[in-house]
């Protein structure tokens, strides 16, 4: 006999460590985290429907203003170059670097704008077909990771330091609106609680077996729907709420992760050796790769910026690949590494991985703004595309890795305890 939803509506299955947690009644502004891995499970926001909507509408308005006016300008020897946000992909496309233009359009403009529109439509219960509503919600949470507006803004600030060595740099009327857009879109995601959000779309499916908080889901024969956070029987492949197919653990997680990781390692070498940028000045062409750019910044006295680029573009991708390799090895082997330590490594990989795109966005700004004929022009090169692919592949590698695998060895004590009781 199936238990009613009200009996288990406060149970949440942790998506990171698979622990079933009983969430108490939360006060406004409070959040519940997993007691085993400290992953955020749910939060109770004041006006949970209107807050994300307000921030999303504000973000879209700021993005519209940011696209209407000049973004930044540069003056060298009396020659002025000025760009808008919409001109950046156009310039890269005109220079036969359509791939760079696509990266910019998708990660900086289209995906953030789509997510804000989706938040408004879903939070305000705009009338639409149930299937469309579910698909929109599924895409929204998948696209969240690929919103890189704030990373592009950091790239703009880094490019300012480089450009100041050549001429006078000024911000345009759209610079402040774009900064506000970055702030509002990040805040809109922060105020959107995934657990509450899906329960608003449709109540969670009924659970037909007894559950006990404080035990892993796999030990109890249940699994988490990674899309809508519903608790399902482990053998049930399709979620009745969001119709997403899944398993107790991601199928072939380690194989997919290692395949993506090996590909990124192969591309990492030419991405750092080949030039990422070509500078044309007074008829001469200067090719520079990532390390040469860092050395140039360091020699010119821009130590903090050089350090940021070195960490984000050299150290982070390398350490991320090593960390993912270690996570895969630990999940596959019978080693006795602390699960909490391995989980911390995984969270760090997830957090810092996107920020390696900062160098790609620096090149996008420089190549769009520095267009002064024979006096000075900057063009993207092959290394920039390869480096962007390295970042994207490592992001996919961390997404395909199932972090619950690092906790499964620790779950054996729960299974042993159940056997002793029986």
TrEMBL record:
<keyword id="KW-0472">Membrane</keyword>
<feature type="transmembrane region" description="Helical">
    <location>
        <begin position="100"/>
        <end position="124"/>
    </location>
</feature>
<keyword id="KW-1133">Transmembrane helix</keyword>
<dbReference type="GO" id="GO:0005886">
    <property type="term" value="C:plasma membrane"/>
</dbReference>
<protein>
    <submittedName>
        <fullName>Paraquat-inducible protein A</fullName>
    </submittedName>
</protein>
<feature type="transmembrane region" description="Helical">
    <location>
        <begin position="54"/>
        <end position="80"/>
    </location>
</feature>
<feature type="transmembrane region" description="Helical">
    <location>
        <begin position="303"/>
        <end position="330"/>
    </location>
</feature>
<keyword id="KW-1003">Cell membrane</keyword>
<feature type="transmembrane region" description="Helical">
    <location>
        <begin position="171"/>
        <end position="189"/>
    </location>
</feature>
<keyword id="KW-0812">Transmembrane</keyword>
<comment type="similarity">
    <text>Belongs to the PqiA family.</text>
</comment>
<dbReference type="Pfam" id="PF04403">
    <property type="entry name" value="PqiA"/>
</dbReference>
<feature type="transmembrane region" description="Helical">
    <location>
        <begin position="351"/>
        <end position="372"/>
    </location>
</feature>
<dbReference type="InterPro" id="IPR051800">
    <property type="entry name" value="PqiA-PqiB_transport"/>
</dbReference>
<feature type="transmembrane region" description="Helical">
    <location>
        <begin position="259"/>
        <end position="283"/>
    </location>
</feature>
<dbReference type="InterPro" id="IPR007498">
    <property type="entry name" value="PqiA-like"/>
</dbReference>
<dbReference type="InterPro" id="IPR005219">
    <property type="entry name" value="PqiA-like_proteobact"/>
</dbReference>
<feature type="transmembrane region" description="Helical">
    <location>
        <begin position="378"/>
        <end position="401"/>
    </location>
</feature>
<feature type="transmembrane region" description="Helical">
    <location>
        <begin position="145"/>
        <end position="165"/>
    </location>
</feature>
<keyword id="KW-0997">Cell inner membrane</keyword>
């Amino acid at each position: 006999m199936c238990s009613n939803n009200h009996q288990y509506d406060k149970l949440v299955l942790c998506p990171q460590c698979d622990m079933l947690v009983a969430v108490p009644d939360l006060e406004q502004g409070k959040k519940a985290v997993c007691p085993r891995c400290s992953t955020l499970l749910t939060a109770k926001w004041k006006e949970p429907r209107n807050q994300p909507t307000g921030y999303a509408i504000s973000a879209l308005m700021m993005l519209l203003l940011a696209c209407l006016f000049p973004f930044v300008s540069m003056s060298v020897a009396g020659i002025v170059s000025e760009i808008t946000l919409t001109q950046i992909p156009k310039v890269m496309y005109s220079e036969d670097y359509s791939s760079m233009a696509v990266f910019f359009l998708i990660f900086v403009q289209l995906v953030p704008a789509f997510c804000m529109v989706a938040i408004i439509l879903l939070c305000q219960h705009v009338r639409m077909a149930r299937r469309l509503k579910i698909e929109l919600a599924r895409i929204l949470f998948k696209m969240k990771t690929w919103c890189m507006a704030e990373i592009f803004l950091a790239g703009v600030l880094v490019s300012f330091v480089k450009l100041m060595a050549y001429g006078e740099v000024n911000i345009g009327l759209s610079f402040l609106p774009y900064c506000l857009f970055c702030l509002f879109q990040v805040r809109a995601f922060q105020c959107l609680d995934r657990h509450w959000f899906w329960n608003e779309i449709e109540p969670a499916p009924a659970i037909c077996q007894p559950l006990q908080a404080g035990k892993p889901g796999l030990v109890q024969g249940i699994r988490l729907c990674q899309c809508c956070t519903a608790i399902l029987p482990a053998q049930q492949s399709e979620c009745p709420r969001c119709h997403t197919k899944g398993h107790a653990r991601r199928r072939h997680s380690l194989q997919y992760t290692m395949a993506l990781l090996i590909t990124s390692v192969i591309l990492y070498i030419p991405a750092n050796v080949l030039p990422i940028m070509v500078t044309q000045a007074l008829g001469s062409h200067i090719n520079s790769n990532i390390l040469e750019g860092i050395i140039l910044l360091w020699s010119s006295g821009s130590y903090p910026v050089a350090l940021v680029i070195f960490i984000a573009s050299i150290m982070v991708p390398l350490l991320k690949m090593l960390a993912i390799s270690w996570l895969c090895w630990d999940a596959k082997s019978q080693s006795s590494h602390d699960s909490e330590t391995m989980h911390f490594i995984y969270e760090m990989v997830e957090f810092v991985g996107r920020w390696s795109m900062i160098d790609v966005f620096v090149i996008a700004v420089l190549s769009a703004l520095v267009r002064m004929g024979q006096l000075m022009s900057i063009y993207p090169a092959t290394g920039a595309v390869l480096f962007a692919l390295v970042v994207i592949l490592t992001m996919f590698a961390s997404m395909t890795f199932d972090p619950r695998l690092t906790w499964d060895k620790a779950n054996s004590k729960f299974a042993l305890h159940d056997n002793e009781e029986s």
